[in-house]
Structure formats: C-alpha cells, structure tokens
Amino acid sequence: MKRIFSVLLVVVMIVSVAFTGCGKATTEEPANTAASSDTSAPVAEASSATEPVAAPAVTDDSSVKVLNLWSFTDEVPKMVDKYKAAHPDFPYEVKTTIIATTDGAYQPALDQALAAGGASAPDIYTAESAFVLKYTQGDAYKYAAAYKDLGIDVDNALKAAEIAPYVSDIGTNPDGNLIGLAYQATGGAYIYRRSIAKAVWGTDDPAVIKDKVGPGWDKFFAAAAELKAKGFGIVSGDGDIWHSIENSSPKGWIVDGKLYIDPLREQFLDLSKKLKDGGYYNDTQDWTDAWYADMKDAGKQKILGFFGPAWLINYVMAGNSGGDKPGVGTYGDWAICEPTVGFSWGGTWVLANKDSKIKKTVGDIINWITLDTSDTGLQYMWANGTFSIPEGKTVGTKDTVASGTVMKKSDGKLDFLGGQNMFDVFVPAGATATGKNKTQYDESINSLWRDQVREYTAGKKSRDQAIADFKQQVADNLGVAIN
User: Fold this and answer.
1) Spatial contact of 179 and 141, defined as CB atoms under 8 Å apart
2) For 365-391, what is the mean pLDDT?
C-alpha cells in the first residue's frame, strides 16, 4: 500500500479487459449418480473407525466469464494485470472498481456490493490497515472466504513463506480461519539522517544509533535533548511517535465492547507535551506540507528522523527529499535502525468473497500475490524491484514484503539509504510487530484522539478535560459504550 492516508478526489474507475485465451476455466466433473438397481444387495456393517474423507476439489463455474475486483488504489489491479500477462490462457474478463478512501467513500460502496451479492459482487476485494478488522474480524467478516476454501494449503504455505505473525493475526477471523493476507510487510524502523547523527554522535552506524534512540522512551528523550543542544529536532511532529505508540500497545480501543484507553496510548498525551515543551520537534502534523518540508531540510530546524515502514521511505520520503539521487537534497543521507518500540503501520489485505463462483482462479491469484515465494511470484518481484521497471532504469522500487523467506533471499539495498540493505532491519521488525491491538473503529477513534491530544499540548485544555471530551466524542459519533 503505497499511500495510506492520501488526500484524493473520489475516483470510481471501471476497467474491463477481455481475454480470449485458449484455456478454459476449470469445471466441476459431473457426479456419478448411477445407483445399483439391486435393492437386495447386502448392506456393509458400519466400521467403528471412520475413514478420512478428502476435501472436495476447488473448482470454477464454467458459466462465469467475469472476475470482479474491488480496491481503493490501483496497486492490486496492477498485480492482477501482471498475473494475467504471465498466464496467457487466463479465461476471464476482469472488471475492476477503484474507489478512493477519501471521505470514507470506499467502505460503504464495498459493503453494499458484498451485501447485494449476485454476478456483480466482488470476487476479490482489498482492505487497508485502518479498517481491515471490519472485514476480517468485525461486522463484515462473514462475507470473506477462508483461504483453505480457495484451495490454498494455508498452514504449510504460511510456514514456507515465513509470513510475519502480525499479518496473519490480522487476517484471521473469529472462527480461526485465515481470510486475508497483506502482500506488504509494514514493520517499522527509525529512519534517520546520517549527517545529523555524525554531527551529534560522531557516527551514523545503525548499531550505535539504535541504542541512542531506544529501546524505550527515556532513551529517546535523552537523545532528543542531545540533539536539541546542537540545534536539531528528533522528529518532525507528534504524529511520528504516535504511529509507533498506537501500533505497539498491548490492547486496542475496544475491550469487552467498551472504549478502552491503553496506558501506553494515554501516555501519548505526556510524550507529545514533552516534545512540545522541549522544542524537540517542529510541531508539524503528518500528511501536511510542513511535515514533507522536514524531509528535505526546509523546516525551522533540521530533523533527525521519522518512524515508519518501507512504504514511507519509498513513496513519501524519497519524493519529498528534494532529490532523486545521492547528493541531491537529502536523498542518500538516510539510514534505518531498530525503532524505540517495535510496531507496524499500514498495509493492504487481500480477501475473497465466500460466494464467488470462481474460487479456484481467485485462490490461484491470491496465492500468487501473498504466498508464492518463487522468483516468478509477486512477493519476489515486489521485493527486488522487478514488478515494474521505469523506462531507462534497470530496476524499479524495492519494497518489503510479507514473506520473510523472500526478503532473506533478496537484495534490499537502497540508494536512498546510502546503500544500506533495508531487509536487515525490516525482517526482524516484522517479527516484533503485533496485530492484536486493532479494532474496526481505529480510523475514526485515532482521529478523535489525536485532535484532543493537540488541544492539550497547545494549552487549550487540561489533560483530564481532553480525555473526557475524547470519550464523549467516541460515544456520540460511534455509539461505543464508555466507562
């Protein structure tokens, strides 16, 4: 997922691509309905041991000619295009519906399409981290097919691919079945400026810097004070630490049906105020021009780093660094190390409709996107920058993927990071991330919480008042019970 909270106009695009390949969809063999006419045949005694019955083969309905794909970006649709190109006998017309998440437009449209069912219902659909729990464990999880019912050998495939545990935790429904996986790994790192680290500590070695900024917030703020003494900030805004706090807390916003403020999330009030009072940041908000400016030294003080996964590096920071090659802007003056606390941020999960009539084909596509560890699978191409290679380049964007197996055999060196192999940090980052603190209300509740924290740090409210107002807003806007 290249952009998690992008600000876009709502776009609905229907793309139909017809393929007339020589192959045919797999069809179900007719059942043998012949019965013996000899009613006097003896009946065998029931065995005390039940013979194991093989699971029925997953097949496609030969009458179906269209595969419906729904997403909120063009990322997964492009993957399906790539899959089709590699399978010239692919027999389906693919109808793609893309609806941006702007103003919450995607979810209501998807919900309506899933509930309506029929020939136009999505066969494959996607959900991002901010609302994926609704579709894997919340109100809409029953629309999704278990991966095992798509012909995927789930247990063996997960083990062989070394999928980061948080990815499968998030994609497992209340019945214990895996119904969604992300293709991207979004474990987080601390992304820092080499030149600033050298100016303050005499080295840019990740093994040293990780011990400066953590583990734990006490070490982080000790580093912030050292940076401040030399005229630098440690992060751009409080959002930079929020994502690591939110996604590392033991519990989510809803516990036993009621609003719950995890102590680590409540601590964000104090940490945010400490950043402001100490002048340790530029007081920006993420996804604003001021935040982007700090990626290229255009803020009021130079900033050491940001917390984030590989997608933040590739699709946000690189484009806002003021250059496109080492030595231009801040491009190439970055490195990554283990973060203050382990966390993940973002991701897109791929799901299938349980009522799809082409489960075999859907399963083959999803397996290729999320679990295939071969050199021709999406995971390998995505990790090594061979999925899409810009004209005039020898390699495209390299990204972290859900499969640890793939990353271990891939080249993760980035010019943006001064040649550092990002997989050395991001593979273990995935192991420390958790998927057990999410709820289907995260997108809305996070926004309300962060608004109140800013009111508190700006001196407009007391700490207690900010918490009280937050609770009331959650109750009023979401109908969630509060303590």
Assistant:
1) yes
2) 94
Arithmetic mean of pLDDT, 169-182: 96
Give the lowest-confidence range in 9-23, 123-137, 336-350.
Answer: 9-23
Distance CA 134, CA 112 (A): 14
Q: Which helix (DSSP H) or strand (DSSP E) does residue 277 occupy?
A: helix 263-278
Distance, CA of 448 to CA of 457 (rounded, Å): 15
pLDDT of 72 strictly over 50: yes
DSSP labels, 150-208? GT--HHHHHHHHTB-HHHHHHTB-TTS-B--EESB--B-EEEEEHHHHHHHHS---HHH
Tokens of 1: 């997922």
With CA atoms as reference, report the closest residue to 382 among 3, 70, 76: 76
SS (H, E, C) 390-402: CCCCCCCCCCCEC
Cβ atoms of 240 and 306 within 8 Å: the answer is yes
Where in the chain is CATH 3.40.190.10? 1-26+63-185+346-409, 189-343+437-478
- Per CATH, which fold does 189-343+437-478 belong to? D-Maltodextrin-Binding Protein; domain 2 (3.40.190)
